[in-house]
Amino acid sequence: MLGGYHKTDLDNAIRMAIQNHPNFPPSLGQFEALVSGPKPQRTTYLPAPDSPRNRKIANKTMLNVMMQTNGVESFTLKNMVLLKNALYKEWGEKVSKKDVKDLHDELMGLVGDQI
Q: What one-character DSSP code corresponds to residue 38?
């Protein structure tokens, strides 16, 4: 009857049964209630780590360039991503308007006649 429960849940229920039922052992129904009661999630959703500010700026700049095109070839897109990633990592924590403009201009140069 208790075969569907995880060993950890059973171990926790045994500990709780000793504490919660002074007339130990509890009935099977009482023990099953302890096992199937509120239990913590084994896997927890973790949000994505916060992106550094410079990465967000670089992504927004690339998005702006992409919005100015009618689409790009996959080879061009791959090169754009590589360029963007390389440049934003060089920026450090302080991003100047010149850095953003340079990234924009270089990405536009890759897009070229695909506008």
A: S
The Cα–Cα gap between 95 and 26 comes to: 65
Q: List b or e across 36-66, with b for residues whose CB sees 16 or more CB atoms inside 10 angstroms.
A: eeeeeeeeeeeeeeeeeebbebbeebbeebe
Structure token digits, residue 8: 């950890």
Element housing 39 (H / E): none
Task: Report how far residue 115's alpha carbon sits from residue 93's, in angstroms, rounded to the nearest whole number.
Answer: 32
pLDDT in tens, 32-72: 776 666 655 566 666 666 668 888 888 899 988 888 888 78
Burial class (CB in 10 A: 0-12, 13-18, 19+), 79: middle
Instruction: Give the pLDDT score at 38.
Output: 61
